[in-house]
Specification:
Number of strands: 4
Shape: elongated
Number of domains: 2
Number of helices: 15
Mean pLDDT: 86
Strand order of the largest sheet: 2-1-3-4
Strand content: under 5%
Radius of gyration: 28 Å
Largest sheet: 4 strands, mixed
Order of helices and strands: HHHEHEHEHEHHHHHHHHH
Distance between the termini: 26 Å
Length: 374
């Protein structure tokens, strides 16, 4: 009973310390509100309202037809410019694409020649540049072919592909971006908050005060773990319900409660990692650099940004020891595909084992650091 009381009261102390830290509070609010919304709606890899300009040196029905093919939401209405305005507009970043239709283009097309159209692309906007170039090529070829045939035609294919997109029928990337950003921010904040709490004790000299009290290092660790986990868990639940489901209108197929249970297991592992990292770092700047080195691989190689199957087999096997890999797997299965516990129990078990391992490692390292202080 005394041990549970110590853990509870030390955890409450951590919560009051967090309340008095406006920077951390601002980080938490931003991570689970504005950051979620921006990540879901920005969609940098999607061709959306791309600025395009057209130099129409032909001024023919065909060139006007090509210009009329560009419209929202993929492209902004084309801006008609002269040849002399191309470099100035591209240098200023006014246009991602500039399409130059040469003189006598329609005449050459009707004569059976193969005239060329120049497409200037601002390759610094990589997402739009890659997808937009092929998209524009298909659009121009389609308009030219239909103009030559004198009528719009629908080609009858010998085999028809019946597409059925499951779990996201409209292929809306907002569904993916918002939920995956919650997963990223849960990992980031659980590590940062727990590690910062421990380093704050060391920098303020209060770790010595704790050592003279009748508390053990394990109780100190558990207090920091449960208090910071509660903060992140409540923030994630708020973001999932009010930002993702409420503001972004993203449907959640599975059980929110089951997802939060999996999040709790992941928080146990991630907060233990945060304590372990804080025992290695001697100051907050060192902890920040260490967090960057660990967080980037955890987020990029866990299957969050790209499928694990597309990664080298060595990376896939190595990332099975990371809690984020199993958290992403269970989150996608529950939130996107409506999976129940009978499907995701291996991920739950893996998170529990990884969390216990990191807790033991952090406990040993924390005891060593405490012995050095004492």
């Amino acid at each position: 009973m005394s041990s549970r009381t110590n853990i509870y009261r030390l955890g409450v102390k951590e919560l009051w310390s967090l309340v008095r830290d406006p920077v951390m509070l601002l980080l938490i609010v931003h991570a689970f509100t504005l950051a979620i919304y921006v990540s879901a709606t920005a969609m940098p890899e999607t061709l959306n309202k791309a600025p395009i300009a057209i130099v129409d040196e032909d001024d023919s029905p065909l060139s006007k037809r090509i210009a009329a093919a560009f419209y929202l939401p993929h492209f902004k209405p084309p801006v008609m410019i002269s040849m002399a305005d191309i470099d100035r507009g591209m240098d200023a970043g006014d246009f991602t694409f500039v399409l130059d239709i040469p003189p006598n283009f329609q005449r050459d097309v009707l004569d059976g020649k193969s005239p060329s159209i120049q497409l200037n692309v601002d390759a610094t906007r990589m997402g739009q540049a890659f997808s937009g170039s092929s998209y524009i090529q298909q659009m121009v070829l389609g308009e030219v072919n239909e103009f030559v045939l004198r009528y719009r035609t629908t080609r009858v294919e010998q085999v028809e592909l019946a597409l059925r997109a499951r779990f996201n029928p409209n292929l809306d990337q907002i569904w993916f971006g918002g939920l995956m950003e919650i997963i990223n921010n849960v990992t980031m904040l659980s590590i940062i908050l727990t590690g910062a709490a421990l380093i704050r004790e060391r920098e303020h000299g209060t770790i010595e005060h704790l050592l003279v009290m009748p508390v053990t290092p394990t109780e100190i660790m558990l207090a920091k773990i449960w208090s910071m986990s509660v903060v992140v868990l409540l923030s994630a639940a708020f973001s999932l319900i009010f930002i993702v489901q409420g503001l972004l209108k993203v449907p959640v197929e599975g059980s929110t409660v089951l997802f939060l249970v999996g999040t709790t297991l992941h928080l146990f592992a991630a907060t233990s990692m945060g304590i372990w990292m804080a025992t290695l770092a001697r100051s907050m700047p060192q902890f920040g650099m260490l967090a960057v080195l660990i967080l980037l691989p955890l987020q990029m190689l866990s299957g969050n940004s790209s499928p694990r199957e597309s990664m080298p087999e060595l990376v896939q096997n190595a990332m099975l020891f990371a809690p984020t890999t199993h958290f992403v797997m269970l989150a996608q299965a529950i939130l996107f595909r409506g999976a129940d516990l009978s499907v995701v129990w291996p991920q739950f078990l893996a998170l529990a084992m990884i969390g216990a391992t990191f807790f033991l490692i952090a406990s040993v390292q924390f005891r060593k650091s405490v012995a050095q202080v004492s």
